[in-house]
Amino acid sequence: MKRILCGFLLLAAANLFAQSEPRHPVVYVMPGPLAGPGASANSTVLVDSGPKAKEPQVAKTYQELQHNKECQGISANLIRDKADYFLLVEHGGGKGNRWAVSDTSGNVVGSGDAFKIGTAVKDACVAMLKNWQPKALPSTK
Questions:
Q1: How do strand 97-103 and strand 26-29 relate by DSSP bridges?
Q2: 3-class DSSP state of 75
Q3: Is residue 95 assigned to a domain?
Q4: Pairing state of beta strands 26-29 and 75-76?
Q5: Which helix (H) or strand (E) holds 20?
């Protein structure tokens, strides 16, 4: 009987702890400017890719999200529907990288440019975390 009671109390405590822990923001890295954050496949992001733009290095961007210390409070996800934020990084070859972050409503919460991809991702993470602070309540998502 004591084992059952202890097991029940342990499960209840674990459940309570899991619910009180704040949820981290989730980001989806967009493969290009025409893969907009909206629910519709026809949504667009107003970022000019230009004729000489290279294909985005999405894998490198995800790698930077995982290893950059400013991004530790952010979860990267490959499933667009689970994202709280959408990150677009446009690689300009030797001309630097432009980035933009939007929320699920399509509102731009930050944008900028940086010479290195890592710096662009770091700046994007800072913008997401700054915007996330008022929303850091547990969610039913």
A1: unpaired
A2: strand
A3: yes
A4: parallel
A5: helix 2-20
- Model confidence pLDDT, tens digit, residues 19-64: 555 789 999 999 877 655 555 444 444 444 444 444 558 899 999 9
Rounded to an integer, what distance in angstroms lies between the CA atom of residue 115 and that of residue 38? 28
| Domain interval for residue 32 | 25-135
* pTM for this predicted structure: 0.68
pLDDT tens profile 31-43: 877 655 555 444 4
Phi, psi (rounded to 5 degrees) for 83? -80, 145
**113 located within any domain:** yes
Question: What's the structural domain count of the chain?
Answer: 1
**Residue with tokens 């991004």, as numbered in its chain:** 71
How far, CA to CA in Å, does 16 sit from each of 10, 43, 79?
Answer: 10, 39, 27
